[in-house]
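Good day; I would like, with your permission, to put a structural problem before you. What I wish to show you is a protein chain and, alongside it, a tokenised description of its three-dimensional fold. Here, with my thanks, is the record as I have it:
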Amino acid sequence: MQAIHYCYDEMENGTLLHIQDNGQGFDIAQSQSGLGLDNMREHAHIIGALFSFVNEPGQGTKITLIWNETTVTTKQHTCSFNQ
């Protein structure tokens, strides 16, 4: 059964968003080129955030985004995740 876990934490010096699934994962070197990861990295860079992507075949995927509230110039968004 596939599950998605996420954590959103507003800390004193910034905000952390961590998303993890227990899916199949994939070998990034063997995957078809797409825009998803590139777009995430670019948007993280625009707001001055740190972006981390960890993925291994058979191990699922982990994405972490950490940013300082003073670097964000866009409106706050609310996200929802389906399991």
Summary: The two ends are 10 Å apart (CA to CA).
